[in-house]
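Reviewer 2 asked us to include a model.

Predict the structure of this chain.
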Amino acid sequence: MAPKNKFTKEEMTEAALRVVRSRGTDGLTAKTLADELGTSTQPVFTAFGSMEGVRTAVCAAAIGIYDRYTAMGLQEHIPFLGVGKQYIRFAREEPELYRLLFLTKMSKSSAMQSMQHLQALVRPTLMCIYRITDEEADVYFRDLWLVVHSLAVLIVTGDCPWSDQQIAQILTSFSVSICKAIKEIPGFAAGSFDRDAVFCAMTGE
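Predicted model (structure tokens):
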């Protein structure tokens, strides 16, 4: 009979998260996890069967942490702004977990899946606050989320030169621009507007 494992799977998953946070996803191996636990690799394989089992558990735990950030965003007065702020906050505070979930193939989640999930959650408040259709709300969220995602990636890769205050100003600028385009350019959300006519009107030509 195999000896009883002195660590629970939850404790081992927490240890694996610590390894990912300090070493990145490539640094998570049976040895580094065993070193973090102060044991041999045997308990790791006894509990999870393989490193694939460890990675699956770590991804699930990382999604749970990310979901808590999203939940905080949804509780804000303007939920669609809240989830954007929390997405960026997650990137800033948990860069390796962000990398794991959205910039690697290790996780079954993806940035696009996250965007679509959040889009469905905030669509009603977008429609209510801006008095726009569901199609217009989805275009607004998609375009602004692309900016949020780009900023988050810059933060995670260490290439973002802007403070939180400057990021808020950037998001406000894009928000105003997208909303104004939806409201004032017929066919903008559907992509059927006359681009040449719009740009000519803007330049006075």
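Residues 79-203 form one domain. Residues 51-74 form the longest helix (24 residues). We have added this to the supplementary material.
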